[in-house]
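Quick note —
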Amino acid sequence: MRRATNCGSVAAARQLLLASILAGAVSAQSAPGRRAVVTSAEQRLKELGITLPPPPEAFGTYAEAVQTGALLFMTGMLPTEGRRAIFVGRVGAEIDVAAGRKAARLAALNALAVARQYLGSLDRVTRVVRLGVFVATAGDVRDQPKVADGASELLQEIFGKEKNPARMVYGVASLPLGASVELEIILEVADGVDRASDTATGRTRRHSRIRSITTPRS
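Predicted structure written out below.
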């Protein structure tokens, strides 16, 4: 009888100890003045040592970004530097999957450069809503998702796994400029002050209507 009582006491003590540990962990998380450290997108860029390229110039008559409501629609983004595509050719023919991944990553960097130019800061991005990846492929290549991961992984590194988008991947015969990859991206953004100001009055405007940006073409 005494042995059973001792066993019961030990079990009760263990439960109390576990409860106190859990209570301490909860109180530490909820204590006033203590907040979880959240790294912003701009901070992650610095931590990763990533420098965004200059925003690409338009290759035709279109806007590079258009916002309606809380959604920012990006134009098709290519793996370009300046006025030329860096990665040219079809996956499975002229280039391999590894090069295709690099192409997708470069196209994503270009998209982020345009988004920052439009928004002023990538910290305004609240969600990557959709990522469409077009991959120029030859024959019966089936590795388009692996190529698309080159863009998906970069976006996750910068915005976090919780903001991962829905994704569609397509294999196509050809893309503009002969590029290997083209991205379609839709972002959800927080409201903010428009960087464009009225030069006559010096007043700033808030994003409340459909707006687009274009860049000069050479």
